[in-house]
Amino acid sequence: MSDAQALRVFADSEEMEVSFGPQHPATHGVLRVMLRLDGEKIIDAKPIIGYLHRGTEKLFETETYNGCIPHTDRMDYTAAATNNQGLVGAVERLMGVTIPPRAAYIRMMLAELQRLASHIIWLATHALDIGAVTPFFYTFEEREKILDLYEEYCGARLTLNCMRVGGQPFDLPEGWTDRCRAFIDQLPAKIADWEKLLTRNRIWKLRTVGVGVISAAEAIDWGLTGPPLRGSGVKWDIRKVFPYDRYDEVAFDIPIGSNGDTYDRYLVRMEEMRQSIRIVHQCLDRLPAGPVMAKVPKVIKPPKGEVYFSVEAPKGELGYYVVSDGSDKPYRLRVRPPCFINLQALPELVRGHLVADLIAVIGTLDIVLGEIDR
Amino acid sequence: MEENEKETPSASSPPQAPPEPKPPWEEKPVPPVAADARAHAQVAELEQAVPGVVVEAVELAGQVTVTVAFEKLATACRACKERLGYDYLVDLTAVDWKDRPEGRFDLVYWLHRNRDERRLRLKVYAADGVEVPTATGVWKTANWMEREAFDMFGVYFAGHPNLERILTWEGFNGHPLRKDFPLEGVDTGAAIYPEVYPPGGGPVKGGAEGEA
After folding, report:
1. What residue ranges do the domains of chain B occupy?
2. Contact A291, A100 (CB under 8 A)
3. Rounded-to-integer distance, Cα B80 and Cα B85, Å
4. Least packed by Cβ within 10 Å: which of A59, A75, A95, A358?
5. Considering only CB atoms, which chain A residues are within 8 Å of B140?
6. Any idea what the Cα angle at residue A89 is, between residues A84 and A91, rounded to 5°?
C-alpha cells in the first residue's frame, strides 16, 4: 500500500484505498489507518503509527530513576498514576525495597481512581464515536471530580508524577479520605445511569454486538491484555496473577465476557469500574497509619541487573523492563505498552466489517497514541 | 534522626528485652542477589526439550533468565510455545551493549504461560548486522515488537513478513536507541534529500560537521 496518497482508486476493480486519519477525531489522537475498501466493506486495514513518537525510551537513559517518572506521565496521559506505579515498582524490585503499607494503600487508591477516570474517558469517547452524545456530558462530570481529588493530593490533574521510588512523596491531605469516600459513594448510581443510556439501547447493541470479534486463543496469540482479553472470556488480570502493592489483601472480581465482541468489552469495563470502587472502599476502610516513604538512599542506584515488572493498567499489562549497569541512570528502560500490542490486532478485528465499525473497534480497543508512539 | 537512634540503645538499661526488629521499610534495602538457575525446573525442561540450548541461566528477583545459543533460537522459541506451553509472548526487545565481544545486542524474549502462570526470559546475543530468525511464525504478536526492535536498534529479522520501520518513517537516518545515536537527534532531512542523507543510516555526507 502506498503511504503517500490519501486516496487511491484502482482502475480494474471497485476497490480503493483510503487514508483514515491521522486527523480524524475518531482515531483518538494521531492514528492513521490505511484502508483498502470494496464499497464500504473493509478488505484490509494497516495502522500507521509514530506521529507522536518523542523518544521516551531514549530520554529515560539520560534521566535519574526518579527523573523518569514525569516522562511516564506523558505516555498514557489518561492514566498517569498506573504508569508511575509500574516504573517505581520495577526499580523497587531491583533494589529490594519494601514500601510501607500506607504507601501501598495510597498507591492502590490512586491507581483504582485512575482506572475509573480512564474508563470514564473510554466510555465517553467510545459512545460519542458511535453516535451517543449524551453520555459524554454525564461522564465527564464524574471524571472532573476524580481529577479534583488528584489535584488535592499532588497538585496536578493529568501528569501526576505522584509516586517515588520507595513510597509516596506526600501523605494524604487532611479530609481527603472523606471527600474520596463521598465521591465513590455516589458513583455507583451514576454508573447505573450511564448503563441505562446504553446497555439495553437498541441502537447501541446493533452497533456493538458481533462487531470486532476475537476468540480467546487468537487474543492470547496476538498478546492482547486488559479488557480486550477479558472480553474474550480469559480470566486473567495481573492484579490477581502477580499481585503487587497490597492487591492480595483486597477482595475484587475479574469480570469476563463470553463472545469477545465490542459489546462484551463494554460490559467488562463497566463492571471493572464497579470493582474499582469496591477496591477503593476497602482501601479507605483499612488505610494503615505510619510512614509513606521507605528508607531509601537519596541517590537511587540499583545494583547491576535486570528486572521486569508489570501492573494492570486500565488498558492492559503495562510492563517496565529495567536494565541497570549500577549507575544512577537506567542503562535501558523498556516499556511494554499495552495499547501498542492491542492495536496490532486491529486489522484482524475489522476485516470484513464496514467503515463505521472500524470506529467502534478503535473505541473498544481503548488506545492512547501517547503510549503507542512513546 | 540517626544520632537519636544511636543514643537510645546505650541509654536504655541492660535488662530490657532486645528491641523488636524494625519493619523492612525502615531498614536499608537489601538488593536481590543473582543466583545460578541451571537446576531450576523451567530451565531444566527447556534443556530437555532442546538439548544444548542453555548457555547460561540466572535467577534474579524471582525471574529466570536463560541465555540461549544463537543458532538454536528458532528451535527454542518453537519448543517453548509448542512443547512447554508458553503461549503468550509478553515482550520482545533489544539492549545495545555497544562494544561487547559476544555480540552487540541482547535480544530479550519475555514469555508467559497461562497453564501455571510462570514466566521465562530468553536472551540471545546478536552481533550487529546479523539476521535473527523471526518469531512471528510462533507468536503473532511478535510482528510489531520485531518491527520496533528493527526500527530502534537496526536488528534484522530473517523471515519477517513486513520488516518496516514503525515509529519513525521510511527513510529515517539511523536507529535511535543505539547507544551511539546522538540524544539531540540527527538532521531528519532523509525523506526530503535522500541523496544527502542515505536511507538506512550511516554517516551523513556534508552534515552539520562539514564534509564527512
Report:
1. 35-167, 169-204
2. yes
3. 6
4. A59
5. 221-223
6. 105
A242 touches chain B (CB under 8 A): yes
**Is the confidence at residue A79, as pLDDT, over 80?**
yes
Would you call A94 and B88 a contact, using CB atoms and an 8 Å cutoff?
no
Percent of chain A at pLDDT above 90? Answer: 48
For A:38-97, CB contacts with B below 8 A are 49-50, 53, 55, 57-59, 62, 93-97
Please tell me the pTM assigned to this model.
0.84
Residue A322 has pLDDT above 90, yes or no: yes
The answer to whether A296 contacts B32, with C-beta atoms less than 8 Å apart, is: no
Distance (Å, rounded) from C-alpha A33 to C-alpha A346?
Answer: 10
Give the model's confidence band at B149: pLDDT under 50 very low, under 70 low, under 90 confident, else very high: very high
Over residues A7-23, the mean pLDDT reads 77
Residue type at A113 in one-letter notation: L
What is the CATH class of B35-167? alpha beta
Q: Does A22 sit behind a cis peptide bond, omega within 30 degrees of 0 on the bond before it? A: yes
Closest C-alpha among A336, A335, A357 to residue A346: A357
3-state secondary structure A212-272: CCCCHHHHHHCCCCCHHHHCCCCCCCHHHHCCCCCHHHCCCCCCCCCCCCHHHHHHHHHHH
Q: In angstroms, rounded to a whole number, what is the distance separating the alpha carbons of residues A181 and A337?
A: 32
Least confident of A168-172, A268-272, B197-201: B197-201
Q: Between vectors from CA A139 to CA A136 and to CA A140, what angle results, nearest 5°?
A: 80
